[in-house]
Amino acid sequence: MAVPPGHQGDLILRWQGRLPCWDAAAIVTEADAWAEALADRAWMQRALALAAAAAAAGEVPVGALLVRGGEVLGEGYNRPIAAQDPTAHAEVEALRAAARRVGNYRLPGSTLYVTLEPCPMCAGALIQARVARVVFAAPDPRAGAAGSAIDLLGTGRLNHHILYTGGVLAAESAARLRAFFRARRGAGAGIAGPETMAPSLGAGADGPPTLALEPLATSVPPLPVAAAVGEALLRAGQRLAVAESCTGGWLAAVLTAVPGSSRWLERGWVAYSNAAKCADLGVPEGQIAAHGAVSASVAAALAAGARARSGADWAVALTGIAGPDGGTAEKPVGTVFLGLAGPVGVRAERLPLLAGDRQAIRRQAVAAALAALLAALAGG
Ligand SMILES: [Zn+2]
Fold this sequence. Notes:
By secondary structure, the chain is α/β, with parallel strands linked by helices.
Protein backbone atom coordinates (compact mmCIF):
# COMPACT_ATOMS: atom_id res chain seq x y z
CA MET A 1 0.00 0.00 0.00
CA ALA A 2 1.43 3.36 -1.01
CA VAL A 3 1.37 5.59 2.03
CA PRO A 4 3.65 8.62 2.02
CA PRO A 5 6.27 8.28 4.75
CA GLY A 6 5.43 10.08 7.94
CA HIS A 7 1.68 9.95 7.42
CA GLN A 8 -1.04 7.79 8.82
CA GLY A 9 -1.74 4.54 7.12
CA ASP A 10 -3.20 1.65 9.02
CA LEU A 11 -4.74 2.52 12.33
CA ILE A 12 -5.75 -0.41 14.46
CA LEU A 13 -7.19 0.92 17.67
CA ARG A 14 -8.12 -2.45 19.02
CA TRP A 15 -8.99 -5.53 17.05
CA GLN A 16 -9.03 -8.79 18.93
CA GLY A 17 -8.30 -12.17 17.50
CA ARG A 18 -7.57 -12.85 13.89
CA LEU A 19 -7.34 -9.83 11.65
CA PRO A 20 -9.76 -10.15 8.78
CA CYS A 21 -8.24 -10.70 5.40
CA TRP A 22 -8.21 -7.04 4.51
CA ASP A 23 -5.68 -6.21 1.86
CA ALA A 24 -6.29 -2.61 0.85
CA ALA A 25 -4.63 -3.01 -2.55
CA ALA A 26 -6.73 -6.08 -3.33
CA ILE A 27 -9.83 -4.24 -2.16
CA VAL A 28 -9.13 -1.40 -4.55
CA THR A 29 -8.51 -3.84 -7.41
CA GLU A 30 -11.89 -5.42 -6.71
CA ALA A 31 -13.41 -1.99 -6.24
CA ASP A 32 -12.13 -0.96 -9.66
CA ALA A 33 -13.78 -4.00 -11.21
CA TRP A 34 -17.05 -3.32 -9.44
CA ALA A 35 -16.85 0.37 -10.26
CA GLU A 36 -16.39 -0.50 -13.91
CA ALA A 37 -19.31 -2.93 -13.81
CA LEU A 38 -21.46 -0.31 -12.11
CA ALA A 39 -20.50 2.32 -14.69
CA ASP A 40 -21.16 -0.13 -17.53
CA ARG A 41 -24.67 -0.74 -16.27
CA ALA A 42 -25.37 2.95 -15.82
CA TRP A 43 -24.23 3.80 -19.36
CA MET A 44 -26.15 0.84 -20.73
CA GLN A 45 -29.31 2.21 -19.10
CA ARG A 46 -28.79 5.30 -21.19
CA ALA A 47 -28.25 3.19 -24.33
CA LEU A 48 -31.52 1.38 -23.54
CA ALA A 49 -33.33 4.72 -23.33
CA LEU A 50 -31.95 5.53 -26.79
CA ALA A 51 -33.18 2.12 -28.01
CA ALA A 52 -36.63 3.08 -26.71
CA ALA A 53 -36.48 6.24 -28.82
CA ALA A 54 -35.72 4.09 -31.88
CA ALA A 55 -38.70 1.85 -31.12
CA ALA A 56 -40.93 4.91 -30.72
CA ALA A 57 -39.85 5.98 -34.21
CA GLY A 58 -40.73 2.56 -35.63
CA GLU A 59 -37.12 1.46 -35.98
CA VAL A 60 -35.58 -1.72 -34.56
CA PRO A 61 -34.73 -0.68 -30.98
CA VAL A 62 -30.97 -0.39 -30.74
CA GLY A 63 -29.25 2.52 -28.97
CA ALA A 64 -25.58 3.40 -28.64
CA LEU A 65 -23.35 6.00 -27.04
CA LEU A 66 -19.66 6.68 -27.03
CA VAL A 67 -18.05 7.66 -23.72
CA ARG A 68 -14.56 8.87 -22.90
CA GLY A 69 -13.37 9.95 -19.47
CA GLY A 70 -16.89 9.88 -18.07
CA GLU A 71 -18.18 12.19 -20.83
CA VAL A 72 -20.63 11.30 -23.59
CA LEU A 73 -18.95 12.14 -26.89
CA GLY A 74 -21.87 11.10 -29.06
CA GLU A 75 -25.01 9.05 -29.02
CA GLY A 76 -27.61 7.77 -31.43
CA TYR A 77 -30.11 5.12 -32.25
CA ASN A 78 -30.96 2.86 -35.11
CA ARG A 79 -32.70 4.84 -37.88
CA PRO A 80 -32.09 3.33 -41.33
CA ILE A 81 -35.78 3.70 -42.28
CA ALA A 82 -36.06 7.38 -41.37
CA ALA A 83 -32.64 8.24 -42.78
CA GLN A 84 -33.11 6.04 -45.86
CA ASP A 85 -29.60 4.90 -45.09
CA PRO A 86 -28.61 1.25 -44.71
CA THR A 87 -25.58 2.31 -42.63
CA ALA A 88 -27.61 4.31 -40.08
CA HIS A 89 -27.10 1.79 -37.28
CA ALA A 90 -26.96 3.08 -33.72
CA GLU A 91 -23.18 2.57 -33.49
CA VAL A 92 -22.52 4.51 -36.70
CA GLU A 93 -24.84 7.32 -35.58
CA ALA A 94 -22.96 7.55 -32.25
CA LEU A 95 -19.55 7.44 -33.97
CA ARG A 96 -20.53 10.17 -36.45
CA ALA A 97 -21.87 12.41 -33.68
CA ALA A 98 -18.72 11.86 -31.60
CA ALA A 99 -16.32 12.47 -34.48
CA ARG A 100 -18.13 15.72 -35.37
CA ARG A 101 -18.04 16.86 -31.77
CA VAL A 102 -14.40 16.03 -31.20
CA GLY A 103 -13.36 17.17 -34.66
CA ASN A 104 -11.46 13.98 -35.32
CA TYR A 105 -12.34 10.74 -37.08
CA ARG A 106 -10.15 8.83 -34.60
CA LEU A 107 -11.65 8.30 -31.15
CA PRO A 108 -8.95 6.48 -29.13
CA GLY A 109 -9.55 5.72 -25.48
CA SER A 110 -13.32 5.71 -25.92
CA THR A 111 -15.86 3.05 -24.97
CA LEU A 112 -18.94 2.31 -27.05
CA TYR A 113 -22.07 1.11 -25.26
CA VAL A 114 -24.66 -0.54 -27.47
CA THR A 115 -27.77 -2.54 -26.67
CA LEU A 116 -27.14 -5.23 -29.31
CA GLU A 117 -23.92 -6.94 -30.34
CA PRO A 118 -22.43 -4.95 -33.25
CA CYS A 119 -22.81 -6.26 -36.80
CA PRO A 120 -19.75 -6.68 -39.07
CA MET A 121 -20.27 -3.24 -40.64
CA CYS A 122 -20.34 -1.51 -37.26
CA ALA A 123 -17.41 -3.58 -35.98
CA GLY A 124 -15.46 -2.33 -39.01
CA ALA A 125 -16.44 1.28 -38.28
CA LEU A 126 -15.42 0.89 -34.63
CA ILE A 127 -12.03 -0.43 -35.70
CA GLN A 128 -11.61 2.50 -38.14
CA ALA A 129 -12.38 4.91 -35.28
CA ARG A 130 -9.85 3.18 -32.99
CA VAL A 131 -12.46 2.76 -30.25
CA ALA A 132 -10.77 1.09 -27.26
CA ARG A 133 -13.62 -0.93 -25.80
CA VAL A 134 -17.12 -2.09 -26.69
CA VAL A 135 -19.77 -3.03 -24.15
CA PHE A 136 -22.92 -4.59 -25.52
CA ALA A 137 -26.11 -5.91 -23.99
CA ALA A 138 -27.83 -8.67 -25.98
CA PRO A 139 -25.79 -11.02 -28.14
CA ASP A 140 -26.82 -11.42 -31.78
CA PRO A 141 -26.30 -15.09 -32.68
CA ARG A 142 -26.98 -14.53 -36.38
CA ALA A 143 -25.08 -11.32 -37.15
CA GLY A 144 -22.97 -10.45 -34.11
CA ALA A 145 -19.36 -9.56 -34.89
CA ALA A 146 -18.13 -9.71 -31.29
CA GLY A 147 -17.86 -13.45 -31.04
CA SER A 148 -21.37 -14.69 -31.85
CA ALA A 149 -21.38 -15.11 -35.65
CA ILE A 150 -17.83 -13.89 -36.20
CA ASP A 151 -15.20 -12.24 -34.02
CA LEU A 152 -14.03 -9.12 -35.82
CA LEU A 153 -13.49 -7.03 -32.70
CA GLY A 154 -11.26 -9.48 -30.91
CA THR A 155 -9.30 -10.84 -33.81
CA GLY A 156 -5.63 -10.01 -33.78
CA ARG A 157 -5.52 -10.09 -37.59
CA LEU A 158 -6.84 -6.57 -38.17
CA ASN A 159 -4.80 -3.48 -37.43
CA HIS A 160 -6.67 -2.59 -34.25
CA HIS A 161 -7.87 -4.80 -31.44
CA ILE A 162 -10.97 -3.85 -29.42
CA LEU A 163 -11.67 -5.22 -25.94
CA TYR A 164 -15.28 -6.14 -25.49
CA THR A 165 -17.73 -7.13 -22.79
CA GLY A 166 -21.12 -8.62 -23.62
CA GLY A 167 -24.24 -9.37 -21.64
CA VAL A 168 -24.54 -6.11 -19.67
CA LEU A 169 -28.32 -5.65 -19.11
CA ALA A 170 -28.81 -8.24 -21.85
CA ALA A 171 -32.22 -9.35 -20.56
CA GLU A 172 -33.60 -5.81 -20.66
CA SER A 173 -32.36 -5.25 -24.20
CA ALA A 174 -33.58 -8.63 -25.45
CA ALA A 175 -37.02 -8.01 -23.90
CA ARG A 176 -37.22 -4.67 -25.68
CA LEU A 177 -36.29 -6.25 -29.02
CA ARG A 178 -38.80 -9.10 -28.53
CA ALA A 179 -41.58 -6.67 -27.61
CA PHE A 180 -40.83 -4.60 -30.70
CA PHE A 181 -40.97 -7.54 -33.10
CA ARG A 182 -44.05 -8.97 -31.37
CA ALA A 183 -45.85 -5.63 -31.75
CA ARG A 184 -44.75 -5.35 -35.36
CA ARG A 185 -46.04 -8.83 -36.18
CA GLY A 186 -49.27 -7.99 -34.35
CA ALA A 187 -49.66 -4.76 -36.30
CA GLY A 188 -49.28 -6.61 -39.60
CA ALA A 189 -48.67 -4.24 -42.50
CA GLY A 190 -49.66 -1.22 -40.45
CA ILE A 191 -46.25 -0.57 -38.98
CA ALA A 192 -46.18 2.69 -37.13
CA GLY A 193 -43.93 4.90 -39.16
CA PRO A 194 -41.78 7.69 -37.81
CA GLU A 195 -44.37 10.25 -38.94
CA THR A 196 -47.09 8.73 -36.78
CA MET A 197 -45.04 8.15 -33.63
CA ALA A 198 -44.22 11.00 -31.32
CA PRO A 199 -40.69 10.84 -29.91
CA SER A 200 -41.05 9.66 -26.35
CA LEU A 201 -38.01 11.25 -24.84
CA GLY A 202 -38.31 14.91 -25.60
CA ALA A 203 -36.29 14.82 -28.79
CA GLY A 204 -35.26 18.08 -30.35
CA ALA A 205 -36.24 18.96 -33.89
CA ASP A 206 -33.81 16.52 -35.43
CA GLY A 207 -31.25 15.87 -32.74
CA PRO A 208 -31.06 12.86 -30.45
CA PRO A 209 -33.27 12.80 -27.36
CA THR A 210 -32.17 14.76 -24.35
CA LEU A 211 -31.70 12.37 -21.48
CA ALA A 212 -30.34 14.68 -18.82
CA LEU A 213 -32.96 13.60 -16.30
CA GLU A 214 -32.53 9.88 -16.77
CA PRO A 215 -32.18 8.55 -13.21
CA LEU A 216 -29.04 6.58 -13.88
CA ALA A 217 -27.98 5.85 -10.32
CA THR A 218 -31.37 4.72 -9.11
CA SER A 219 -32.02 2.45 -12.06
CA VAL A 220 -28.90 0.39 -11.43
CA PRO A 221 -29.85 -3.03 -10.05
CA PRO A 222 -28.47 -4.17 -6.68
CA LEU A 223 -24.77 -4.90 -6.69
CA PRO A 224 -23.97 -8.56 -6.04
CA VAL A 225 -21.41 -7.52 -3.43
CA ALA A 226 -24.01 -5.45 -1.55
CA ALA A 227 -26.33 -8.46 -1.55
CA ALA A 228 -23.44 -10.62 -0.31
CA VAL A 229 -22.81 -8.22 2.57
CA GLY A 230 -26.50 -8.49 3.45
CA GLU A 231 -26.45 -12.27 3.31
CA ALA A 232 -23.38 -12.44 5.57
CA LEU A 233 -25.01 -10.11 8.11
CA LEU A 234 -28.25 -12.06 7.98
CA ARG A 235 -26.42 -15.36 8.55
CA ALA A 236 -24.66 -13.86 11.57
CA GLY A 237 -27.85 -12.25 12.85
CA GLN A 238 -26.06 -8.89 12.84
CA ARG A 239 -26.87 -5.37 11.73
CA LEU A 240 -24.91 -2.61 10.04
CA ALA A 241 -24.70 1.18 10.23
CA VAL A 242 -22.89 3.46 7.80
CA ALA A 243 -21.25 6.87 8.26
CA GLU A 244 -20.40 8.64 5.04
CA SER A 245 -18.67 11.87 4.23
CA CYS A 246 -17.27 12.00 0.68
CA THR A 247 -19.74 9.45 -0.69
CA GLY A 248 -22.77 11.42 0.52
CA GLY A 249 -25.13 8.51 1.09
CA TRP A 250 -24.14 6.51 -1.96
CA LEU A 251 -23.09 3.53 0.17
CA ALA A 252 -26.46 3.60 1.95
CA ALA A 253 -28.24 3.85 -1.41
CA VAL A 254 -26.37 0.83 -2.76
CA LEU A 255 -27.14 -1.18 0.38
CA THR A 256 -30.82 -0.21 0.49
CA ALA A 257 -31.15 -1.19 -3.19
CA VAL A 258 -30.90 -4.78 -1.99
CA PRO A 259 -34.40 -6.15 -1.37
CA GLY A 260 -34.89 -7.07 2.29
CA SER A 261 -32.07 -4.79 3.47
CA SER A 262 -34.24 -3.63 6.38
CA ARG A 263 -33.40 -6.94 8.04
CA TRP A 264 -29.72 -6.07 8.35
CA LEU A 265 -29.22 -2.36 7.70
CA GLU A 266 -29.84 -0.28 10.80
CA ARG A 267 -29.19 3.32 9.70
CA GLY A 268 -26.78 5.69 8.02
CA TRP A 269 -25.42 9.18 8.47
CA VAL A 270 -24.15 11.65 5.91
CA ALA A 271 -21.72 13.46 8.18
CA TYR A 272 -20.44 15.89 5.60
CA SER A 273 -19.34 18.89 7.62
CA ASN A 274 -16.89 18.77 10.49
CA ALA A 275 -19.71 19.96 12.77
CA ALA A 276 -21.85 16.99 11.74
CA LYS A 277 -18.99 14.59 12.37
CA CYS A 278 -18.69 15.94 15.91
CA ALA A 279 -22.36 16.49 16.77
CA ASP A 280 -23.88 13.44 15.10
CA LEU A 281 -21.16 10.86 15.59
CA GLY A 282 -19.17 12.12 18.52
CA VAL A 283 -15.86 12.70 16.76
CA PRO A 284 -13.78 14.86 19.12
CA GLU A 285 -13.16 18.33 17.66
CA GLY A 286 -9.55 18.08 18.71
CA GLN A 287 -9.12 14.97 16.63
CA ILE A 288 -10.22 16.77 13.48
CA ALA A 289 -7.99 19.72 14.35
CA ALA A 290 -5.02 17.44 14.92
CA HIS A 291 -5.37 15.01 12.02
CA GLY A 292 -7.84 16.61 9.59
CA ALA A 293 -11.32 15.32 8.73
CA VAL A 294 -9.73 13.08 6.11
CA SER A 295 -7.57 10.87 8.28
CA ALA A 296 -7.41 7.36 9.64
CA SER A 297 -8.19 8.52 13.16
CA VAL A 298 -11.35 10.37 12.07
CA ALA A 299 -12.44 7.41 9.90
CA ALA A 300 -12.06 5.17 12.94
CA ALA A 301 -13.90 7.65 15.17
CA LEU A 302 -16.75 7.93 12.64
CA ALA A 303 -17.12 4.14 12.50
CA ALA A 304 -16.92 3.79 16.28
CA GLY A 305 -19.45 6.60 16.75
CA ALA A 306 -21.86 5.13 14.21
CA ARG A 307 -21.65 1.74 15.87
CA ALA A 308 -22.13 3.13 19.37
CA ARG A 309 -25.00 5.49 18.49
CA SER A 310 -26.89 2.99 16.31
CA GLY A 311 -26.44 -0.08 18.47
CA ALA A 312 -25.58 -1.98 15.29
CA ASP A 313 -23.01 -4.77 15.37
CA TRP A 314 -20.95 -3.27 12.57
CA ALA A 315 -20.34 0.22 11.27
CA VAL A 316 -18.35 1.33 8.27
CA ALA A 317 -17.17 4.88 7.61
CA LEU A 318 -15.73 6.69 4.60
CA THR A 319 -13.95 10.03 4.57
CA GLY A 320 -11.95 11.28 1.63
CA ILE A 321 -11.18 13.90 -0.98
CA ALA A 322 -13.14 13.27 -4.18
CA GLY A 323 -11.97 16.45 -5.91
CA PRO A 324 -11.57 18.15 -8.22
CA ASP A 325 -10.45 20.62 -5.52
CA GLY A 326 -9.39 20.18 -1.94
CA GLY A 327 -6.32 18.03 -2.46
CA THR A 328 -2.95 18.77 -0.88
CA ALA A 329 0.52 17.35 -1.40
CA GLU A 330 0.01 15.22 1.70
CA LYS A 331 -3.56 14.22 0.85
CA PRO A 332 -4.12 14.52 -2.89
CA VAL A 333 -7.48 14.14 -4.59
CA GLY A 334 -8.37 10.45 -4.42
CA THR A 335 -7.24 10.04 -0.81
CA VAL A 336 -9.87 8.02 1.06
CA PHE A 337 -9.82 6.56 4.55
CA LEU A 338 -12.01 3.64 5.49
CA GLY A 339 -13.06 2.98 9.07
CA LEU A 340 -14.61 -0.19 10.36
CA ALA A 341 -16.04 -0.91 13.79
CA GLY A 342 -17.26 -4.36 14.69
CA PRO A 343 -17.70 -6.82 17.53
CA VAL A 344 -13.95 -7.42 17.62
CA GLY A 345 -12.72 -3.85 17.47
CA VAL A 346 -12.15 -0.69 15.49
CA ARG A 347 -9.71 -0.06 12.71
CA ALA A 348 -9.12 2.33 9.87
CA GLU A 349 -7.01 2.26 6.79
CA ARG A 350 -5.88 4.61 4.10
CA LEU A 351 -6.84 3.13 0.74
CA PRO A 352 -4.32 3.23 -2.08
CA LEU A 353 -4.85 6.49 -3.96
CA LEU A 354 -8.04 6.25 -6.01
CA ALA A 355 -7.90 7.43 -9.61
CA GLY A 356 -10.43 9.10 -11.87
CA ASP A 357 -12.90 11.95 -11.62
CA ARG A 358 -15.09 12.82 -8.64
CA GLN A 359 -17.72 10.21 -9.47
CA ALA A 360 -15.14 7.51 -10.13
CA ILE A 361 -13.38 8.17 -6.82
CA ARG A 362 -16.67 8.14 -4.90
CA ARG A 363 -17.83 4.98 -6.67
CA GLN A 364 -14.57 3.18 -5.87
CA ALA A 365 -14.77 4.29 -2.24
CA VAL A 366 -18.25 2.79 -1.99
CA ALA A 367 -17.07 -0.45 -3.55
CA ALA A 368 -14.00 -0.54 -1.28
CA ALA A 369 -16.24 -0.20 1.79
CA LEU A 370 -18.36 -3.11 0.59
CA ALA A 371 -15.28 -5.23 -0.07
CA ALA A 372 -13.80 -4.41 3.35
CA LEU A 373 -17.08 -5.27 5.04
CA LEU A 374 -17.29 -8.55 3.22
CA ALA A 375 -13.70 -9.40 4.19
CA ALA A 376 -14.33 -8.45 7.82
CA LEU A 377 -17.57 -10.42 8.00
CA ALA A 378 -15.77 -13.45 6.59
CA GLY A 379 -12.85 -13.01 9.00
CA GLY A 380 -14.89 -12.16 12.07
ZN1 LIG B 1 -24.44 -2.48 -37.25
